[in-house]
Inverse folding.
């Protein structure tokens, strides 16, 4: 009994992206369409996005959305459509979605406005008659949307998805009124969080169902070492908690058709070698007799980037090479610059964000490294699998759920697709890198792993069916 669902996210591919949330929010509508669900996605009309040439007529408007007029139109780009919330006083400014380098001071208001607009659309529909049965809120930016629905006594069902519990949308309790939240909701079992209010917690306690982006992360979230203070809240929702693994967009990430690379496929891997040669040249690397590893990542301690300075010198001494693309924490950027300088021709670094280069890296790399301390799902290990770059990952969250470790049994059975390590420290990461070099030297074993990875089911087929079943159970 499919129906309509309003997805609410702060970033959506191909319109704007800072991380995996955008990939997922961008992929869900077509994945859900396969199950008969009509999903539209509401996102902020950031500077440069809101006045697209393909905008529809106004579908929703108010004179005063938290301090200024706002309207929603449908906008299309590259075959994808979103509902764009045009509210110049909140979103028409330089500095990316959240403020770069410093977060915007009014982020609580900006994303409360997004959530409020979503809840209003969910209750009253759009001017073209489209009215959703389910509101699906992603992360803290949309966390208040299920709360506004509940406080309004709405019957529209809601889902909150946690993409990363580290970002909790904490704001001053003094903003309660400005955010149109009832004082009565400021209690520990609702919005209150250590004297502040947390928009993510609001979404967790008020949504009809809570999901996160892998089964392992769902279990981890209920433990203090991963729950970041919200483990108890998550545990209290365990009956309504679902770990649904992210997929990847198999059209955007297809080595046989990717316009950014020399194409290749199982059975014709020549292009992979050409991409490797080109990547070495692009990063100024030479004399790499071992595996060429790549990293495409936010540079943060979550991602274990600080472990590289300790683990990489031995790896490159034994013939390996490393190419890193990322940006983030200035200290970690500095550490990587020092590492690259100490290993010229072996470690290459690009600070910045470059989608096209990221495709060339997965295509040219022999391995992709993801040494995260925690990883709700992670997408780059899946891009690696699809592009024949063997993932070396910390055994946590979605990394544990998507990579089959090359232990002796898995190798003997021919099911291994990568290497997992635990605990997340430089010593076990170093051990994993030694294993990577050993496997790389065993060509038939390596080829078999590569092939196995490239044939993994990484798309949305299974997971979108789970979201569809969840929506159906909510409206049943
Ligand atoms: P997270 O969302 O925590 O950053 P994910 O692995 O889920 O981690 O998603 C990160 C996404 O952002 C992937 O699509 C990855 O390829 C992309 N990405 C990260 N850093 C960069 C960068 N510097 N340039 C291009 N793409 C990047
Ligand atoms: C978050 C997580 C990442 C996940 C992504 C998409 O950014 O850090 O692990 O893949 O969301 O769900």
């Amino acid at each position: 009994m499919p129906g309509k669902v309003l997805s609410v996210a702060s970033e959506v591919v191909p319109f704007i992206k800072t991380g995996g949330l955008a990939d997922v929010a961008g992929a869900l509508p077509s994945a859900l369409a396969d199950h008969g669900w009509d999903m539209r996605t509401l996102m902020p009309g950031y500077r440069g996005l809101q006045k697209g040439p393909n905008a529809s007529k106004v579908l929703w408007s108010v004179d005063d959305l938290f301090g200024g007029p706002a309207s929603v139109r449908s906008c299309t780009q590259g075959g994808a459509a979103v509902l764009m919330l045009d509210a110049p006083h909140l979103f028409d400014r330089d500095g990316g979605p959240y403020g770069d380098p410093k977060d915007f001071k009014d982020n609580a208001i900006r994303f409360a406005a997004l959530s409020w607009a979503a809840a209003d659309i969910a209750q009253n529909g759009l001017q073209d008659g489209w009215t959703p049965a389910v509101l699906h809120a992603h992360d803290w930016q949309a966390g208040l949307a299920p709360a506004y629905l509940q406080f309004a006594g709405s019957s529209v069902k809601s889902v909150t998805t946690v993409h990363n519990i580290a970002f909790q949308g904490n704001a001053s309790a003094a903003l309660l009124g400005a955010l149109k939240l009832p004082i009565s909701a400021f209690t520990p079992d609702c919005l209150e969080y250590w004297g502040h209010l947390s928009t993510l917690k609001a979404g967790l306690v008020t949504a009809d169902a809570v999901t996160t982006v892998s089964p392992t992360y769902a279990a981890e979230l209920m433990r203090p070492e991963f729950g970041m203070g919200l483990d108890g809240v998550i545990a209290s929702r365990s009956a309504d908690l679902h770990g649904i693994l992210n997929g990847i967009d198999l059209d955007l990430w297809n080595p046989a058709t990717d316009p950014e690379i020399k194409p290749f496929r199982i059975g014709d891997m020549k292009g992979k070698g050409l991409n490797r040669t080109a990547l070495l040249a692009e990063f100024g690397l030479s004399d790499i007799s071992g595996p060429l590893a790549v990293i495409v990542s936010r540079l943060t301690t979550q991602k274990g980037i600080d472990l590289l300075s300790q683990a990489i010198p031995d790896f490159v001494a034994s013939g390996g090479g490393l190419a890193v693309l990322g940006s983030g924490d200035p200290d970690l950027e500095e550490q990587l610059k020092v590492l690259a300088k100490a290993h010229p021709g072996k470690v290459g670094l690009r600070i910045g964000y470059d989608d096209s280069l990221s495709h060339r890296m997965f295509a040219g790399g022999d391995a992709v490294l993801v040494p995260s301390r925690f990883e709700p799902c992670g997408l780059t290990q899946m891009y690696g699998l699809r592009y024949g770059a063997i993932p070396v990952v910390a055994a946590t969250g979605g990394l544990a759920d998507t990579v089959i470790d090359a232990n002796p049994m898995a190798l003997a059975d021919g099911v291994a697709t990568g290497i997992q390590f635990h605990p997340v420290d430089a010593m076990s990461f170093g051990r994993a890198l030694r294993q990577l070099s050993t496997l790389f030297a065993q060509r038939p074993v390596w080829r078999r792993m590569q092939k196995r990875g490239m044939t993994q089911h990484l798309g949305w087929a299974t997971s979108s069916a789970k979201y569809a079943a969840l929506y159906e159970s909510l409206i049943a």
Q: What stands out?
A: The chain has 19 helices and 18 strands. The chain has a mean pLDDT of 97.
